[in-house]
């Protein structure tokens, strides 16, 4: 598995990362969660991304982590859902980091993202300053922002974050076109989420009530199919090898899906002509299609 520098930090991350949202819910046992995390390491995946809002995800990683702490680059997301604290307040951020440290059972978290807070929260400054104070205190190595559109652009150019996370996939290229390459040139680590666009090609009819419904619509309008109908391989190779991307995170509860994702990324970038087809198809709609939060 290819490793890359994570921006200007001292961290190195795998080109494919593991999004740990799925392991936080009741249909995945702790034993299954640990087996999936073990499999990620076996495949050379060292970037693990979680959040306080992902059910039991932080807890399950925390019970697995002691034997593997030196083998992984760990990220989580904070700023909301702290009892007794207003969302996006300095208290919510500070206590969110402290609670994550305790749940994950570690002294330092490699990357902590403010999780999709709106632009006005970033501009107000108290949430950002609280996160930076956690860096100064040695609780966090790299401060980051996870989000889209105007808030993402602000975060990427503000000079206060060391990382950003954004949707990057065949049907969601706004940040890729407008923000992420410049962020990488400025020394920010870049995490691409939703590289599979929630796999809308699984559905013959338009899905409802899931993130994939917007992406289903967009792919229909783009009216393209990948070479050899390899949707998963094409999507992952597009995202993981997009300019500026440090790691592309795939969320799954199935080891076979993780194996297939790793095999796709190991194949390397898409051929130039194939990549250009998808970029050109999106460019037709670039003024109308915002990043999906």
TrEMBL record:
Domain NADP-dependent oxidoreductase: 16-280
A Pfam family of this chain: Aldo_ket_red
Signal peptide: none
InterPro entries: AKR2_Oxidoreductase, NAD(P)_OxRdtase_dom_sf, NADP_OxRdtase_dom
UniProt-listed PANTHER family: D-THREO-ALDOSE 1-DEHYDROGENASE, NADP-DEPENDENT OXIDOREDUCTASE DOMAIN-CONTAINING PROTEIN
Protein name: Aldo/keto reductase
């Amino acid at each position: 598995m290819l490793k890359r520098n994570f921006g200007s930090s001292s961290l190195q991350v795998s080109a494919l990362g593991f999004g740990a949202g799925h392991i936080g819910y009741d249909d995945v046992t702790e034993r299954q969660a640990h087996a999936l995390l073990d499999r990620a390491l076996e495949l050379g995946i060292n970037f693990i991304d979680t959040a306080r809002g992902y059910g039991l995800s932080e807890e399950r990683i925390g019970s697995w982590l002691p034997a593997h702490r030196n083998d992984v680059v760990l990220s989580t997301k904070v700023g909301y859902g702290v009892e007794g604290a207003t969302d996006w307040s300095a208290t919510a951020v500070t206590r969110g980091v402290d609670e994550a440290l305790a749940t994950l059972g570690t002294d330092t978290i490699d990357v902590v993202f403010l999780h999709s807070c709106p632009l006005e929260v970033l501009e107000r400054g108290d949430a950002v300053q609280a996160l930076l104070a956690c860096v100064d205190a040695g609780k966090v190595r790299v401060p980051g922002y996870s989000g889209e559109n105007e808030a993402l652009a602000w975060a990427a150019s503000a000079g206060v974050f060391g990382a950003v996370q954004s949707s990057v996939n065949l049907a969601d290229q706004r940040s890729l076109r407008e923000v992420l390459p410049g962020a990488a040139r400025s020394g920010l680590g870049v995490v691409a989420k939703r590289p599979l666009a929630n796999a809308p090609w699984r559905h013959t009819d338009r899905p409802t009530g899931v993130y994939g419904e917007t992406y289903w619509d967009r792919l229909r309008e783009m009216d393209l199919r990948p070479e050899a109908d390899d949707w998963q391989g094409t999507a992952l190779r597009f995202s993981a090898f997009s300019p500026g991307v440090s790691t592309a995170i795939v969320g799954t509860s199935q080891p076979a899906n993780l194996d297939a994702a790793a095999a796709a990324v190991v194949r390397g970038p898409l051929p130039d002509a194939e990549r250009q087809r998808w970029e050109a198809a999106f460019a037709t709609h670039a003024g109308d299609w915002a990043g999906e939060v």
